[in-house]
Design a protein that fits this description.
It contains four helices and 67 strands. The chain has 940 residues and is mostly beta strands. It starts with a helix and ends with a strand.
Length: 940
């Protein structure tokens, strides 16, 4: 026999079934019973939550880590997260800790077919006391199913345990193992099958161990093996594969009564047992009492080995030892589906045997079989030997009619039944809504349900001797109005990264007991059914940058519908390329067009819609500009980079790619130019990446006045390290930071290199300048330890100023990117973006630029703008500052410009709640200003 086949058969375990309907039994939220923690494998479970019925734990271990004396842990169905459970918290004698399985849906299922919850792991009770574990299904392969280590006052009741794997596996593992430091341990009313070691093993030193009323079958070694212990071993059914079924040695002291030894052998390891069924070593024989045990059909096997001597019959054993005066042999295969009414194990046990419970392994009561003589002893003479109590074969009929409807719901029940013993029958009806049960029911019983919910109406038939059978009917009482529904939508987040093209829906699950179906229309022509028990679902979108209307339609079991709607706008998340990829370096002819392919830009992976580029240009004999835009689209009237003849200029920009990931680069100069392109990151709607959080611009470094801890110019070839995370609103675990670095008071021509501290090969050149020139440039810097390194690559000293504009977060809960085709949204020369007013931005003046709700940018939810800001042919030097309208102007600069130089810079200013960005001219003279839109950051 292979363990897995027996594992399926464990569904026959019934015991006293603790049951709960599949849904909440009342319309109001139910937080459960006081003092009870809940574990349930539902979508809305949480191992960091309160463990209530509304928000249960996902794993038993989470409950075990917080349970306190007097509390019960209800394990409702299979936990979401299985695995080994280690119990280290103790109860008290008056307030034990209890772990118990709860069946999730008993309706319409015969009691014998209701399986306990599958734990999906093993249990260790380590150094605890006053702990009860009951009604769980455990499987094990290379470890014991239950290990009791240094524990006291432990009860293991109603467990179903099966060894998994081939019978010839070498690992010898036990169903239940009790170590020598444990005491007062009870193993009762459990089923343990196919152990590769022993079903129950008790080590030397343990004492006061009770093993009672268990079905133990198919173990490779013994069903019960006790060494050097004191124990009561009573009322078990032992079907050993290799035997012995029960063995005592090491000076053990024990009472062994009411056990049935059925050992017939099975499987590939032992076709028939050869060891004695019941073995007591010489060192234990004087302190073991044996009586009222029974053995299966005589097959020549040694029934007893007592003190080293074997006995093949009860008569021989009793004559030699004086033990077993009431033992029986040749009793037949004593299982409830095979024992005939004449079996001598019926009504013949010692009811006063230590440890005998009032119910059998199935939870059935001890009853008198009127067809069998009462030959037992003790307080009652009607106990059966072994784990099973023979019951009257009862049938029961009659259930609530109707079984569903809108409340208040009136039902009627007419109970009926029959029994094989021919005894008088009585009936009771429990309507399952908290109302008193109708006992001694006769004829038709009526009842009106007033509370909405799912109720377990039970009809119980009882014969005159106490045998019972129950029929359960599911009665659903609907609410007066259809259950309300709701949904919340957000991008998909996993381990701090966000998939901005996946809609993740959180669904209301409070009244799912009343629902028949749920359907989601995703707004892209597709729809899907969602289980009514689901707390969440998701959907991937192939086409981003548009709003999709989502509609949830739910239908209840009475055909009534309710809907909820939401809107989802797929966007992009950001993934930095570390180290950055130096993709292209070459010459572009005058007015030439360069195709930067997806393989060149590393934009050929899933769902990439834009690339964060850094472009460096060295002018030829004439000045000009560069325009970068999506491949295949018309060239827009924008400039990403402006340069003078023989001047080296650098700028960053995020460029939307064409359908295949390509970008066009156009040289707007009358002369050839040298171009270098670096891809610093990608934006994708189909990959998990980072979201963005803008902050109020803040200065974190100014070597001119000591801000940031460095005072004085940075010498030629020297570097400074700046801490940017964990301060100024940037969290310590930020994945990247958006900086604008200004170089001023430059003593010689040169360039600035920015490096991620702690990340090899991450250096990027961000600025070039000539002697005396002030230059600023925006850059996104990945973070490893929250620091960046600024290196002066010129032959003279420079002053450095650094402002922070935002960060890429490590939670995935920030803003997402919507790239757009580059569009000029501000040009003071022709009135674009100024309401038609054609005038330079005056010295120390501010203009309001509308950003949200125009040029394809959503009217709400916009948190930051992605612009290239340009000062056009300034008359004097100065700076521009951009910030969120409605807030105080920060003491930072977004763009520094010099006399006569048209100067661009990428900026990412926050957007005001009214959708506007303010731009301030800090120069002493008026200046024309461009602003080209490349994208926006938005929240759902």
């Amino acid at each position: 026999m292979v363990g897995s086949s027996r594992f399926v058969a464990l569904a026959a375990s019934t015991l006293v079934v603790v049951s709960a309907p599949a849904g909440a039994p009342a319309a109001a939220a139910d937080t459960g019973q006081p003092g009870t923690l809940y574990v349930r494998g539902v979508d809305w479970c949480s191992d960091t939550g309160p463990g209530t019925q509304d928000v249960p734990f996902c794993s038993v271990q989470a409950a075990a880590d917080v349970v306190v004396p007097g509390q019960t842990v209800d394990i409702v169905g299979t936990p979401r997260y299985g695995g080994k459970v280690t119990i280290t918290r103790s109860g008290t004698p008056s307030a034990p800790i209890t772990f118990q399985g709860v069946t999730s849906n008993p309706f319409g299922t015969p009691a014998a077919e209701i399986a306990p919850p599958l734990l999906g792991g093993t249990i260790t009770l380590s150094g605890v006391h006053d702990v009860h574990v009951s009604y769980l299904l455990l499987d094990h392969t290379t470890t014991d199913a239950v290990d009791v280590k240094g524990a006291q006052d432990v009860v293991l009741d109603g467990l179903s345990i099966a060894q998994q794997g081939p019978e010839d596996a070498t690992a010898a593992t036990d169903g239940v193992s009790v170590d020598g430091a444990s005491s007062d341990v009870t193993v009762s009313r459990s089923r343990i099958y196919d152990s590769h070691g022993n079903a129950v093993q008790v080590a030397s030193g343990a004492h006061d161990v009770t093993v009672t009323t268990n079905e133990l079958e198919g173990s490779r070694y013994a069903e019960i093996a006790a060494s050097g212990t004191t124990a009561d071993l009573t009322g078990n059914t032992l079907d050993d594969a290799c035997g012995p079924a029960l063995t005592l040695d090491g000076g053990s002291s024990a009472t062994v009564e009411n056990n049935v030894f059925t050992g017939t052998g099975h499987g590939t390891v032992c076709l028939a047992p050869t060891a004695p069924a019941f073995s007591v070593a010489a060192d234990s024989a004087a302190s073991v009492t044996a009586d009222y045990n029974a053995f299966a059909p005589h097959n020549g096997r040694t029934e007893y080995s007592w003190g080293g001597t074997g006995y093949t019959t009860v008569a021989a054993f009793t004559a030699a030892t004086g033990q077993g005066a009431h033992d029986l042999d040749d009793v037949g295969y004593a299982y409830p589906d095979a024992t005939d009414e004449n079996s001598p194990v019926i009504d013949s046990a010692d009811a006063d045997a230590p440890g005998e419970p009032a119910t059998d392994v199935n939870g059935a009561p001890r009853v008198d079989d009127p067809l069998a003589a009462d030959t037992g002893t003790g307080a009652r003479t009607t106990y059966d030997r072994g784990a099973f109590e023979r019951q009257d074969t009862l049938s029961v009929a009659g259930g609530a009619t109707p079984s569903s409807g809108i409340g208040p719901l009136s039902v009627s029940v007419t109970p009926r039944g029959a029994g094989s013993w021919g005894l008088p029958l009585t009936y009771s009806v429990d309507f399952g809504d908290g109302s008193p049960a109708v006992t001694d029911a006769s004829g038709t019983v009526t009842h009106t349900y007033t509370a909405p919910g799912v109720h377990a109406e039970k009809v119980t038939v009882t014969d005159a001797n106490g045998s019972t059978a129950t029929r359960t009917t599911k009665v659903t009482v609907g609410t007066a109005t259809p259950p309300a529904t709701s949904l919340a939508v957000s991008p998909g987040i996993a381990q701090g990264a966000v998939d901005a093209g996946t809609a993740f829906l959180t669904l209301d699950h409070s009244d799912n007991w009343e629902l028949a179906s749920r359907t989601i229309s995703w707004g892209d022509g597709s729809s899907s059914s969602v289980p009514v028990t689901a707390g969440a679902t998701g959907h991937d979108y192939d086409e981003p940058f548009r709003s999709y209307p989502l509609t949830l339609t739910q239908t209840d079991i009475f055909g009534r519908t309710a809907t909820a709607t939401a809107t989802f706008r797929p966007a992009d998340s950001y993934t930095p390329l570390t180290p950055p990829e130096y993709d292209y370096q070459g010459t572009v002819k005058a007015h030439g067009l360069l195709d930067l392919t997806s393989s060149t830009l590393h934009t050929d992976s899933d769902g990439v819609d834009a690339a964060a580029l850094r472009v460096t240009v060295t002018g030829g004999t004439a000045g000009g500009y560069l325009t970068l835009y999506p491949y295949g689209s018309a060239r827009p009237s924008v400039s990403a980079l402006n340069f003078a003849a023989h001047q080296t200029t650098e700028n960053g920009m995020t460029v939307r790619t064409g359908p295949a990931g390509d970008v066009f680069l156009y040289n707007g100069s009358a002369a050839s130019v040298s171009v270098k392109v670096v891809t610093a990151g990608i934006f994708s709607h189909a990959q998990h990446g980072h979201s963005y959080a803008p902050v109020t611009p803040v200065r974190v470094l100014d070597t001119r006045n000591g801000t940031g801890g460095v005072t004085g110019p940075v010498a030629s070839g020297k570097s400074i390290t700046v801490s940017v995370a964990g301060t100024h609103g940037i969290p310590a675990d930020a994945a990247a930071v958006v900086l604008d670095v200004q170089t001023t008071s430059t003593r010689a021509s040169g360039s600035l290199t920015v490096t991620s501290h702690g990340i090899a090969d991450s250096a990027v050149t961000t600025s070039y300048w000539t002697k005396g020139q002030t230059v600023s440039n925006l850059t996104v810097v990945p973070l490893a330890d929250g620091k960046v390194v600024l290196h002066n690559s010129s032959s003279g000293s420079v002053q450095l100023v650094t402002d922070v504009f935002g960060y890429a977060d490590a939670t995935g809960t920030g803003s997402l990117y919507l790239p757009s085709t580059p569009t000029r949204i501000l040009d003071t020369r022709n009135g674009t973006g100024t309401g038609g007013r054609m005038a330079k931005l005056g010295a120390h003046q501010t203009l309001k630029l509308r950003f949200s709700g125009v040029h394809g940018i959503p009217s709400s939810g916009t948190t930051a703008a992605d612009l290239v800001l340009t000062a056009v042919s300034p008359a004097t030097g100065g700076y521009l500052t951009a910030w969120a309208d409605g807030t105080t102007r920060p003491g930072t600069a977004s763009l520094d410009y010099g006399t006569g130089r048209t100067t661009p810079n990428e900026i990412m200013p926050p957007v005001g709640s009214d959708g506007y960005v303010d731009i301030y001219n800090g120069g002493s003279a008026a200046v024309n200003v461009f602003a080209d839109q490349y994208g926006a950051y938005v929240v759902q």
